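Aim 2 progress. For 2,3-bisphosphoglycerate-dependent phosphoglycerate mutase, the working sequence is reproduced below.
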Amino acid sequence: MPRLILLRHGQSQWNLDNRFTGWVDVDLTAEGEAQARRAGEQIAAAGFRPSVMFTSVLKRATRTGALALDAAGLRDVPVINDWRLNERHYGGLTGLNKAETAATHGEDQVKIWRRSYDIPPPPLAPGGEWDFAGDPRYAGQAIPDTESLKTTLDRVLPYWDEAIVPRLKAGEDVLIAAHGNSLRAIVKHLFGVPDDRIVEVEIPTGNPLEIDLDAGLHPVGARYLDPARAAELPPLGAGA
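Predicted structure tokens for this construct:
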């Protein structure tokens, strides 16, 4: 049976500053680096040796993956980067402090923007500081101006089917180092989490989530490798 590990990046500087990050390329804090190294040690202790690591194009995820592989003694594992594994685009909330935004718009509204399945934040105005249209990493791509978890899943799922599923179906173990919402999208798909329950799913930073899959790529077991920092997992279901 193939094994899959989902690894949310370690604490970033904007996690620490309580700001909406999205596609902004923020680096890890010292604690985030330590979380990534601990994740690698836990991966090694679990006897997990992936054939490949998939990650986004944002350095908080790419560096988390690299630090984890290094700590696990797996420096030779090939790495594939793709923007479709990026964090969700936070639109007009990008760069704002979360507490100040809640004080302005109300905690309930901010919770809807952050955690609901299909209600995106207000769009990002073009031409501003956080406009990614000129970023060469996204050349030729249709850049969103905001995303919900649903539209994040809409871009993650084709990449999952195209690039990741064939490796798993070949029996390979796979590591994905990415972001809270791109990984929540994968969890929603795999575990068959209903739209109205995905709001309750949270993935801790820097804690590897190991998922055991059957031949049909349905989860038959799942656990966080650091049980002291584990979040509640969805029940195993039909999923994909």
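The chain has a mean pLDDT of 95. This observation will guide construct design in the next reporting period.
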